[in-house]
Each structure stands twice: as C-alpha cells, then as structure tokens.
Amino acid sequence: MAKEFGYVYILTNPSMPGLVKVGKTTITPNKRMSELHSTGVPTPFQLECSISVNDCHEAELLAHQALNSFRVAKNREFFKVPPKKAIEKILESVEECEVVDFRESHGIEKIEIEIQRKRTEKLEEEERKKLQIEQSKRLEEAKNKIEQEKIFQKIQVLKLQLKSLGIKPKKEEPSGWMLFGFCYFPLPIGWLFWLGAFSAFDPKRSDIGYVCIGLLVVGYFAHQASTKLDKRNEECHKPFDEIEQKILNLEIEMTAKSKGKNTYYPTQNQSIKNQSSHGKGNDWITCPTCRNRVEKSDSQIDFKCHKCGNAFRY
Asked: Nearest-5° angle of CA 58, CA 60, CA 66?
C-alpha cells in the first residue's frame, strides 16, 4: 500500500470502560470521531491522543502490533489497556511521529515536551502581537504628531494674518433715533387700523394723522439706516471673522486628533505670538460660551467676551 500522510488516534468511550480504540485516518481525528459516533454507540468518543505520521497505514500496523497482547478481538481495533500505557507503547513503536493533540499528558515525557513547546509558541505569539500593537501605536502617535504640527503651523500663519489686519473694530450699535424709529414704527399702522384709514385725516383728528405719517417716515429711514449699519459692520468684521473661524476649526481638528493623548506642544522657537502696538506679547483664547476669540496678554487671567458678555478666567 502506498504511503499516505495521516494520523493515528487513541480514543476512549464512557460507554466502554477499560477499552481504547486505536485507528488511523487521513482526515482530522475530530472528524473521524464524529463519524464513529453512530446510532450503535450511546456516547461520543473522547480523544486521548493523536499523532501525525508520513505513512498512516504502516504507523497503524506498528501501533496494533505493540498492543497485540491487549487486543479484544482480531477483527476489531479495541484494546483492553489503560490510555497511558497505550500511548506509551505507540510512541515507542512509531518513532517518526509528532504529537498533535491530547486530552492530558498522563505524565508521558514526549507529551509534556509538546505541552511546553505549545505553551512557548503561545507566549511567543502573544509577545509578537504585543510588539506589533506597540509598534503600530508608536507609528500612529508619530503620524498624529506630524499632523498636529502642520495644523499648529497653519494656526500660527492665520494668527499673523489676523494681526496684520490690526485691531478688530467694535460693532457699531444703532443710535437713539434709530431705536426710537423702530420702537414706534408699528404703532402708526395700528392707529391707522384703529382710527380708520380715512377718519385719521378727519379735520378734527388731523394732528393724529400727521403724527402717524411722521412716525412712518421716521421708521422707514431708521430701517434703512440700520440696514446700512449692519452691512457696514459685516464688511468690517468679515475678514476678522473668516480668519477666526478658520483658526477655531483648526483648533477643533487638532483637539480631535489628540483625543486627550499625545497632544502636540510646540517648542519655544516654534511658538509665534502676536505683538500688540505697545510691544507686549499677545495671544488669543476662545470664549467657552460662544467660542469667540478674545485677545490675551501674557499676565492677564480674567477676561470678558465682547460678543456675549461672558466673564471667565483662563
């Protein structure tokens, strides 16, 4: 019979106490055990030990010869022998083999060596995976640091652009006559409906009608003036707001990349501070309420946001 790679297995069964089954298979021993669990066997077989060999036919023959004195019947693969003794005799008779699987060592040196080898392989694999994770983590940290440094440099460039625009102008507020016009703008409409559009100019009530017309005119011009004021404020603040929003977006991106770890801290040479007209070092901080940028000097710790009025300490 031609040589064929396979396995020699030693099985036991709770329904057959004191007996072991020794056989061969070219498939895995576990699959062979499933095939043996037929309707004629009340309980499944248990694998005591299995070895891999280059010629499973010859290895099985040697195993059966070693256990011949314990054989129950010549045409059966069952032997009345303790599992430990059966394993010892098979390992002695089949020299070129490798222990593949086993339920327990039974104190057999070759199986214990195999247990130690597998334990060592497992520890080495765990250590290898650990090193891979650490290496991957270090690479990710280095990548994040480079990305954070790039973001930091962009922020510094934008801060210099913001500084070049000068001091951000304060928002112009509507004057008193504008507020007056807006406050009283709705009243004439109500009066016209209340008095009646035509009766408002009755000779007896002509003064009321003139007041209504006057307030309507004031309200119209107040609205026009307020619109122009809003547009002027928007045009003045737009360059500042655009740069401040870009800086804020970059800071949020930088915070998200750091995730509270491996945060990029610039060196003294990399840190670029805005310089005020008085020559003192100034920087910017973000209001925790509205996220507006507030100018900060080196020694200042208390601040007030000019946009939302929030007072906070930094």
From this structure: 105
Query: What domain range is 194 assigned to?
Result: 140-272
Cβ atoms within 10 Å, residue 12: 19
Biggest alpha carbon–alpha carbon distance for the chain: 140
Q: What is the pLDDT of residues 255-298, one digit of tens each?
A: 877 764 544 545 434 443 433 333 333 466 777 666 676 776 55
Cα 273 to Cα 153, 214, 269, 284: the distances in Å are 12, 55, 11, 9
**Eight-class DSSP state of 3:** -
Quote the tokens at residue 17.
Answer: 């106490």
Question: Please, what is the end-to-end C-alpha distance for the chain in angstroms?
Answer: 88
Structural domain count, the chain: 2
**Distance in angstroms (rounded) separating the CA atoms of residues 221 and 217:** 6
Whether residue 94 contacts residue 110, with contact meaning beta carbons closer than 8 Å, is answered with no
Contacts of residue 168, Cβ cutoff 8 Å, sequence gap at least 6: 237, 240
Kindly state whether residue 214 falls inside one of the protein's structural domains: yes
For 296, the token pair is 């900060």
In a domain, 213, yes or no: yes
Are 187 and 239 contained in the same domain?
A: yes
SS3 295: strand
266/176 same-domain check: yes
Length of the chain: 314
Does the predicted model carry a pTM greater than 0.70? no
CA distances from residue 235 to 11, 109, 169, 193, 209 in whole angstroms, order as listed: 89, 88, 11, 39, 39
The pLDDT of residue 175 is 63
Q: Give a yes or no: residue 133 inside a domain.
A: no
Q: What number of other Cβ atoms are within 10 A of residue 45's Cβ? A: 22
Whether residue 184 sits in one domain with residue 60: no
